[in-house]
């Protein structure tokens, strides 16, 4: 099979056996998508699968030897898995970094309001979204609440078919003349993204009745919302798209399509000479900030702990490890959309169904905020994919002056690592429901596995 081929899709290049393996992989990926609906649930599922495969908390170890499987749980929202190689860790690691957060609507700290006997949740959107896309669709509420006495309450409403769902209303077209005259990004504002919570009450006001329902079912008071993390996401689970079933529609492909490939790769890769590390980060969609984002110290702390268990406690060893490490920044890329040709430069745009996408640079206008991978490292990754028949292509985030975006690549490059963005091309990125090709999702797994096993 030709690894780089922009004339023939991956499906056309795959053998019948490879197609069957691809379908089996995507069935498992869909199960992951439908389970890992938030970053907390994703971290929980990643740890469940890791423990089943023999990974143990780093704190359980007093020394490390080749083949040991360790994990780091960063506050239940980020995870690192590592398989120790035969080389000392300070000779460098093979790192695949992905993120498990995705665009959504978060409930505000005091979210319950009433207007004309209709109760709403007030929200604040998380990450880059097109606000008009979030109206008139069924929505779920998922997250945790801590009560006054410190108990954690898990909330999940809208996921079970028997559950009620939430809904953000829009103006009917009969009354929408003024709205239609506005720019697309002004027709629906952030403060208008208010899911309807309820309308029924025998009392003068509806809000107390809704708060009573919450107290009776979950044991939470209005004040408890101040110590909560509650997310509004589409109630729709993953579905196959197209008469040929070649694509998957779901919330959260960005970046769980790369995260699942990362997880599957480290679970099934053969242990090698280099220590393999799979990073599943939080907060990428808002700049990798906070103590669960990659700008925090936890990955460096994890690496320092690994080194200490091999008797290398001086800071020099940490710097040497990072400087000698290689990274695939596993984040999605924009696929060419023929419906909107003016946004893309076709000869450098990734195509749906043509394999994993190498993106030399991201950023915006003049490569601002980009890692801009060097030619030497790109050559090495290209040769690796060609040797192992990993379907791959080149891509970028649209025309030069059209827009842009960022990943965690530049942060890890700041540590001294060699880094290139390497992710799945997709349609409708950051929409409530996004689309990826099954062949591309599987190609991502093949790419990350080959990288982990390389020298």
TrEMBL record:
<keyword id="KW-0862">Zinc</keyword>
<dbReference type="GO" id="GO:0005737">
    <property type="term" value="C:cytoplasm"/>
</dbReference>
<dbReference type="GO" id="GO:0008237">
    <property type="term" value="F:metallopeptidase activity"/>
</dbReference>
<keyword id="KW-0031">Aminopeptidase</keyword>
<keyword id="KW-0482">Metalloprotease</keyword>
<feature type="coiled-coil region">
    <location>
        <begin position="15"/>
        <end position="53"/>
    </location>
</feature>
<protein>
    <recommendedName>
        <fullName>M18 family aminopeptidase</fullName>
        <ecNumber>3.4.11.-</ecNumber>
    </recommendedName>
</protein>
<keyword id="KW-0175">Coiled coil</keyword>
<comment type="similarity">
    <text>Belongs to the peptidase M18 family.</text>
</comment>
<dbReference type="GO" id="GO:0008270">
    <property type="term" value="F:zinc ion binding"/>
</dbReference>
<dbReference type="GO" id="GO:0004177">
    <property type="term" value="F:aminopeptidase activity"/>
</dbReference>
<keyword id="KW-0479">Metal-binding</keyword>
<dbReference type="Pfam" id="PF02127">
    <property type="entry name" value="Peptidase_M18"/>
</dbReference>
<dbReference type="InterPro" id="IPR023358">
    <property type="entry name" value="Peptidase_M18_dom2"/>
</dbReference>
<keyword id="KW-0645">Protease</keyword>
<dbReference type="GO" id="GO:0006508">
    <property type="term" value="P:proteolysis"/>
</dbReference>
<dbReference type="InterPro" id="IPR001948">
    <property type="entry name" value="Peptidase_M18"/>
</dbReference>
<keyword id="KW-0378">Hydrolase</keyword>
């Amino acid at each position: 099979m030709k690894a780089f081929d922009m004339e023939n899709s991956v499906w056309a290049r795959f053998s019948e056996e490879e197609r069957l393996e691809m379908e089996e992989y995507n069935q498992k990926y869909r199960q992951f998508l439908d389970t890992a609906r938030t970053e907390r649930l994703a971290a929980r599922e990643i740890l469940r699968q890791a423990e089943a495969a023999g990974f143990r908390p780093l704190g359980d170890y007093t020394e490390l030897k080749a083949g040991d499987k360790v994990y780091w749980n960063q506050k239940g929202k980020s995870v690192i898995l590592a398989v120790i190689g035969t080389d000392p860790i300070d000779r460098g690691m093979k790192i695949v970094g992905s993120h498990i957060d995705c665009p959504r609507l978060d409930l505000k700290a005091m979210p319950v309001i009433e207007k004309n006997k209709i109760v709403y949740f007030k929200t604040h959107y998380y990450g880059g979204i097109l606000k008009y896309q979030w109206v008139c669709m069924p929505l779920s509420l998922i997250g945790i609440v801590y009560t006054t006495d410190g108990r954690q309450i898990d909330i999940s409403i809208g996921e079970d078919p028997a559950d009620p769902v939430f809904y953000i209303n829009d103006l009917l077209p009969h009354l929408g003349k003024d709205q239609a005259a506005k720019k697309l990004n002004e027709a629906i504002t952030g403060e208008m993204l208010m899911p309807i919570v309820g309308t029924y009450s025998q009392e003068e006001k509806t809000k107390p009745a809704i708060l009573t329902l919450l107290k009776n079912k979950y044991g939470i008071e209005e004040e408890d919302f101040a110590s909560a993390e509650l997310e509004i996401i589409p109630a729709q689970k993953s579905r196959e798209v197209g008469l040929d079933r070649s694509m998957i529609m779901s919330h959260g492909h960005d970046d769980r399509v790369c995260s699942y490939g990362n997880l599957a790769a480290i679970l099934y890769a053969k242990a090698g000479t280099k220590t393999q590390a799979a990073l599943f980060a939080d907060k990428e969609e808002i700049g990798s900030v906070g103590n669960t984002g990659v700008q925090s110290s936890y990955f460096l702390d994890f690496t320092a702990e690994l080194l200490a268990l091999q008797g290398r406690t001086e800071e020099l060893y940490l710097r040497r490890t990072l400087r000698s490490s290689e990274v695939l920044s596993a984040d999605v890329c924009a696929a060419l959309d023929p419906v909107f040709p003016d946004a893309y430069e076709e000869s450098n745009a990734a195509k749906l169904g043509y394999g994993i996408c190498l993106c030399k640079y991201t950023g915006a206008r003049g490569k601002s905020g980009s890692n801009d991978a060097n030619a030497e490292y790109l050559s090495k990754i290209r040769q690796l994919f060609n040797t192992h028949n990993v379907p791959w292509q080149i891509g970028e985030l649209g025309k030069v002056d059209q827009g842009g975006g960022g990943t965690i690549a530049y942060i890890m490059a700041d540590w001294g690592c060699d880094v290139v963005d390497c992710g799945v091309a997709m349609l409708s990125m950051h929409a409530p429901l996004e689309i990826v090709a099954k062949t591309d999702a599987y190609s991502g797994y093949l790419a990350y596995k080959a990288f982990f096993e390389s020298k």
